[in-house]
Design a protein that fits this description.
66% of the residues lie in helices and 13% in strands. It is of the alpha+beta class and 433 residues long. It has one domain: Outer membrane efflux proteins (OEP) (Up-down Bundle), CATH 1.20.1600. The strands form two sheets. It has a four-stranded antiparallel beta sheet, with no helix packed on it. The two termini are 54 Å apart.
Length: 433
């Protein structure tokens, strides 16, 4: 029993520490995109637009069903003239009834409107996919940007550690009496020059993590650990095939095609306004009148009627013609928007595939340059230890190694960006889940 207070305090401290210092999140690329979609307001807004469009289509379709209306009227004739025409007028009137109206045909006006709204619903679904693709793309960039910043920090720290080791080699050389004051100052300057590089890399990495936290809805006190690195292998893309996939899969283009189809249906709907509307109706009324405020069943009588109604538009001041002209212009604009967007996306895809292919080709050479620079630096350290190399040459060898590592990491980062662009444009991989 004596251990319970201690356990209680431990649990309390643990909970307090979790609130104060946040939690550690093991984050991979897949979880990043999933959390970013969940946190995206743009994606949620587009989801609501899909729901809104779906119910708008249902609202329009409701006119195809019987329209049933009930009506109840109780009337007190407070004042009326004493004329022969009103000599049978009673003080109180009561009427209750039900009317049913059923549209038989509008010659395409309603059916075209419903078809247009269904196309608009489909358009919003594709727009939702497009927004999702954009969220996935941006979250990937944020993840890779954070990973790139992390690698830059590791490289600059290693560069700093290399200069410290170089100074240690210099101190060993000093034991043999071959140390010059110039070499000591040069080594100190080399170390000092690395310190701002490390500080800037730490600041960049911290900023990149904060941007990533915001995108995935993590608390600013949370600690992010990136568990995924760059892929080990890369698929090949051909521009011709990629352009075909763009036209077949890209949700933005599909949405615009649905918009074109919707505008064509709207044109048909506007043209159908020239035609009549035929409907059937049925009315049943139960009414009566009395000089007493209470109207009994003995003076209430049923009335009913059934028939057809034909409404023919004769002249509305060219209103229908003007509506058709507007809808035709909207249709032409939808087609032009599709063509313009397609050209823009095709150009973006061609640039991304070209850049991707170039980076793939230069990647082996970039990695080889890092390996050679590392060998050169290790050899330079050996030569410096034996007095065959100056401190300046040693620092140059280390800077070359750091430069090649940075170039290689930059190429890898650009490669991920180009790959993410291609996947977004052709709706491939994570974008097609």
């Amino acid at each position: 029993m004596e251990h319970f207070p201690t356990l209680k305090y431990f649990i309390g401290f643990f909970c307090f520490a979790s609130v104060l210092f946040g939690e550690t999140i093991q984050l991979n690329l897949s979880e990043t995109t999933a959390r970013a979609i969940k946190e995206s307001e743009d994606y949620q807004i587009q989801q609501n637009e899909v729901v809104k469009a779906r119910y708008k289509a249902k609202e329009t379709s409701s006119v195809l069903f019987p329209q049933i209306t009930g009506e109840l009227t109780y009337l007190n004739n407070v004042h009326y003239p004493d004329l022969p025409l009103t000599r049978f007028t009673k003080n109180f009137n009561f009427e209750a009834g039900v009317s049913v109206n059923q549209i038989i045909t509008t010659f395409g006006k309603i059916s075209s409107s419903i078809a247009a709204l269904k196309k608009l619903t489909s358009m919003n679904k594709y727009r939702q996919e497009s927004v999702k693709d954009e969220v996935v793309f941006n979250s990937k960039l944020l993840y890779y940007n954070a990973f790139f910043a992390k690698r830059m920090l590791e490289i600059t720290k290693e560069s700093y550690e290399n200069t410290v080791k170089n100074k240690e080699l210099l101190e060993k050389i000093s034991e043999t009496g071959r140390l010059s004051k110039r070499d000591t100052i040069k080594m100190e300057a080399d170390i000092a020059a690395r310190i701002p590089m490390v500080s800037n890399a730490e600041s960049t990495y911290s900023t990149a993590l904060e941007s990533l936290k915001k995108a995935i809805g993590a608390d600013f006190k949370d600690t992010i650990e990136l568990t995924d690195g760059y892929p080990q292998s890369y698929e090949k893309f051909e521009i011709g095939k990629a352009l075909e996939q763009l036209e077949q899969r890209q949700p933005t283009l599909k949405a615009l095609l649905e918009a074109v189809s919707a505008q064509k249906k709207i044109v048909s709907s506007k043209r159908a306004e020239y035609f009549p509307t035929l409907s059937a109706f049925f009315r049943y009324n139960y009414k009566g009148a009395s000089d007493d405020y209470f109207i009994g069943s003995d003076v209430l009588f049923p009335y009913s009627a059934v028939g057809l109604n034909l409404q023919v538009p004769l002249f509305y001041g060219n209103r229908t013609r003007d509506k058709i002209k507007q809808s035709l212009a909207d249709k032409d604009n939808a087609i032009l928007t599709y063509k313009k967007t397609k050209k823009t996306l095709e150009l973006e895809l061609e640039k991304a595939v070209t850049e991707y292919q170039e980076l793939i080709q230069t990647l082996p050479a970039s990695e080889k340059a890092v390996q050679l620079a590392e060998k050169s630096f290790r050899l330079s350290q050996d030569l410096f230890s034996s007095g065959q190399l100056s401190s300046t040459d040693l620092n140059d060898a280390e800077m070359m190694l750091t430069t090649q590592r940075i170039k290689n990491e930059t190429n890898l980062f650009k490669l991920q960006v180009a790959l993410a662009k291609i996947q977004r444009l052709i709706h491939l991989g994570d974008f097609h889940e």
